[in-house]
Amino acid sequence: STMICALVLSALLLVRPASGCGSGVGGTNDYEILQDPVFNMDISPPVAWTFFPQPAAATTPALFFVGQSNETMTAKMRADTDIKAAMIEAMVDAQLPVYNVQVSNTYQPESFANPGALTTGTGDQYGKLEGGAITQFYRGAAMIVFAPYTKSVDVTVRNAQTTRYTWNLVKNNFLQKMALNYNAKFTGDVTVNRF
User: Fold this and answer.
1) C-beta of residue 44 within 8 angstroms of C-beta of residue 133
2) Predicted structure pTM score
3) Does residue 53 lie within any of the structural domains?
């Protein structure tokens, strides 16, 4: 009888309620199936995803950064291509099928002038290039004082489904590829949500 009580007591001590990442209690469920996930992020865009303002006159020099696009369509195409390539590579690394997968995003390019040696703005939006990304900006016609610059971007993956755990692996691979291959800078957490 004492032996049975001891066994029951030790079994109760060894077995505890499930909690943490995989239980769905007190957090997200790693085993939850997500179809067509949306990755939400704040990003300082690579310089190639921006474009420079056109000079006001033929004799005015263009204030551009090396590698910057010359117009909106080119900047958007570069962003779309880089985001899709990084996401597809991240999915392949996680051993997910990519046939018929569609990757879309909400990124919209902005114009940034390179201030060079200017200390006073002329009304353009000026950018500060750090590590290949536009991380700060100033807009106006006074003394140039930069402020942090990020854009909120959603990346949606269609025609794919797996567990939240696997999507988190994809997210980590995606962030790494975006940072190392395309110079994107991320601020804060990147979240994976249902479409």
Assistant:
1) yes
2) 0.83
3) yes
150: tokens are 């990020």
| Segment 134-192, tens digit of pLDDT | 999 999 889 999 999 999 999 999 999 999 999 999 999 999 999 999 999 999 999 99
The string of DSSP letters for 126-189 reads EEEEETTEEEEEEESSSB---EE--EEEEEEEES-EEEHHHHHHHHHHHHHHHHHHH--EEEEE
The domain of 98 spans 29-193
Torsion of CA 122, 79, 36, 30, to 10 degrees: -90
Beta bridge partners of 193: 38
Tell me, yes or no, whether 20 lies in a domain: no
How many folded domains does the chain comprise?
1
Rounded-to-integer distance, Cα 31 and Cα 25, Å: 12
Can you point out the beta strands (E) in 13-124?
33-35, 38-44, 102-105
Beta bridge partners of 133: 46, 130
Instruction: Give the residue among 152, 189, 195, 177 at the shortest CA–CA distance from 42.
Output: 152
What does the alpha-carbon distance between residue 47 and residue 184 come to, in Å, rounded to a whole number? Answer: 9
Cβ-proximal residues to 23 (8 Å cutoff; 6+ apart), any chain = 29
The answer to whether position 87 is within a domain reads yes
